[in-house]
Amino acid sequence: MPPQRYRSFCFAHDPKNAARRVAIAAAAGRASGVSRRTVPIGLDGLDLLSREGVASLLTQLLRAELRARIAPKRSRNLLRAVDRLLALRQ
């Protein structure tokens, strides 16, 4: 950023703007936190030790991801956990 008019600092480095920068950063953090909130997809009560439970989990994850209720990164993490669980069962 170029220096502000009549000042030797840009907005990001001007000591007079420190409080305002902190407020902007805090608001940005809240906004990004809102987008990362978890969305319940009803995984409680699933028996992940049975084939039916794992199939139900996979179905729910796929539906939630297709409906954009869960981020692909989160569903991949859950799928990795299920994969490790299944590997331990063998």
Description:
The protein is mainly alpha-helical and 90 residues long. The longest helix is centred in the N-terminal third of the chain and has 18 residues, at 18-35. It is 58% helix and 0% strand. It has helices at residues 18-35, 51-66, 72-89.
Main features:
rod-shaped; mainly alpha; 90 residues; single chain
In short:
By secondary structure, the protein is mainly α.
The helix/strand series, from N terminus to C terminus, equals HHH
Note the gap between the termini. Answer: 58 Å
Strand fraction equals under 5%
The multimeric state of the shown protein is single chain
By helix and strand content, what is the structural category?
Answer: mainly alpha
Low-pLDDT runs: none
Q: Sheet with the most strands?
A: none
What form results from the Cα inertia axes? Answer: rod-shaped
Helix run count: 3
**Rg from Cα:** 23 Å
Number of strands: 0
Roughly what is the average pLDDT, rounded to an integer? 77
Helix content: 55-70%
Question: What topology emerges from the helices and strands here?
Answer:
Blueprint: H1 18-35, H2 51-66, H3 72-89
